[in-house]
Amino acid sequence: MAVLTVLYPAHDGAKFDHAYYDAVHIPLVKEVFGPTGLESVQVLRGLTAGDGGAAPYVVIANLIFRDAEALRASRSGPRGLEVRADLARFTDIQPITQISALA
């Protein structure tokens, strides 16, 4: 399995519309990437840092794909740009992404 992790770093004045993200963006991700191998999505909302301070990330999303080829096919597919373009509708945060193998 391959995992695309999308991290939205917290910073003062950051805009993040959780309602839009939950109701529109995540369903769009599932609709677009499901046919090419997306198996599940895990969304984590930052509460606090390990030391009790402010959470370093507003949201961390793990998109779990059947394998690395499914992840590549999803990201480079005809609607991959649609998913990336939707970010501007719910946040002004520049996300950090990482691709990992599920151990």
What does this structure look like?
- The chain has helices at 18-33, 68-76, 80-85, and strands at 2-9, 38-45, 57-65, 96-101.
- The protein has 103 residues and is an alpha+beta fold.
- It has a 4-stranded antiparallel beta sheet.
- The mean pLDDT is 96.
Can you describe this structure in just a few lines?
By secondary structure, the protein is an alpha+beta fold. 30% of the residues lie in helices and 30% in strands. The protein has helices at residues 18-33, 68-76, 80-85; strands at 2-9, 38-45, 57-65, 96-101.
Protein topology:
Blueprint: E1 2-9, H1 18-33, E2 38-45, E3 57-65, H2 68-76, H3 80-85, E4 96-101
Rg, alpha carbons? 14 Å
Shape: globular
Q: What is the overall number of helices? A: 3
Amino- and carboxy-terminal Cα gap: 8 Å
Our estimate of the beta-strand percent is 25-35%
